[in-house]
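Weekly modeling sync, notes
Attendees: S.R. (lead), two postdocs, one rotation student

Agenda item 3: backlog of single-chain predictions. S.R. asked that every request posted to the team notebook include the full sequence so nobody has to chase files. The rotation student volunteered to paste the first one in as an example of the format we agreed on. Action items at the bottom.

Example entry:
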Amino acid sequence: MRSISLDQLNEAARAVEEGGLVIVPTRRWYMICADATNEAACRSIFDAKQRPLTKSLVLVSPSAEHCERHFVVHHEARKLMEAFWPGDLALLLPWRDEQTSARYTAVGAPALVTRSSDALGRLAAAAAVPVAATTVNVSGDAHVDAPGPSITIDEVQDFLKLTDVPVSVVLDGGVCPVANHLAIVDCVTPEARLVRVGLVHQRALSAALGRELVG
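Predicted structure, as returned to the notebook:
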């Protein structure tokens, strides 16, 4: 494993293309990433995190056009994309066709999709393969004394020592300042539904839609 600076992000993109795992910072916390279509690489993330295979990884879309090409984007989903992407919102979206969906087993169907303006989004834009990601921590580690997902390089190193996961590259972005979750909205049907509150407030989501967004 090599630790590199943010201005070496192209090296991280090459590592993902070659089947490696990469850890990058976001303003929320550090994320561990892999080629979304590489089953072995993604499986190593599930194994390290002790994450159930039914709890899919998030797909980091490089552009709105990418989403329109691969997913059914209903009117309310498009409103939320235009208002909050790139940003701290993830949308559950249905694939346009089963053949494409079958290549993304770690992402699942429907897919949880986000766009990011930080190193995570830049990695997705730079890589020649689709990028799947999740937080750097052991799944279910939510007891009162648990720190939650990693927000510092020291916490990333603790995770790597604990799990022995074969990470190729870690991008050192210092301390992640927000330490909070993406908001999640289910956009599988034309009428969007709130799944999880997060950094994008429910009031803001409702304002963008012009109606109260409920779960």
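Discussion: group reviewed the output briefly. The two ends are 41 Å apart (CA to CA).
Action items: rotation student to repeat for the remaining queue; S.R. to check formatting next week.
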